[in-house]
Specification:
Layout: H1 34-71
Length: about 70
């Protein structure tokens, strides 16, 4: 997860350029500033906490089902 934010050497996978954002010949400039990076980091951290919460909820539900079935 930490390596996602590491800026290394850029690797060009595609030998050609595809622009999906062109509108009537006008190109929309995409600039990455510190605000976008901060939002990206916050989204990554919050998604990790959401996954942890979902997995812990599933574990608790499964353990309750097993306990209830063992009591019968």
């Amino acid at each position: 997860m930490f390596l996602t934010f590491y800026k290394g050497r850029k690797i060009n996978i595609w030998p050609f350029y595809i622009n999906l954002l062109h509108l009537n010949g006008h190109v929309i400039p995409l600039h990455a500033d510190s605000n976008n990076k901060l939002v990206g980091i916050l989204c990554a951290i919050s998604s990790c906490f959401c996954v942890i919460f979902i997995l812990s909820y599933i574990c608790v539900k499964l353990s309750l089902i097993l306990v209830i079935n063992n009591l019968k």
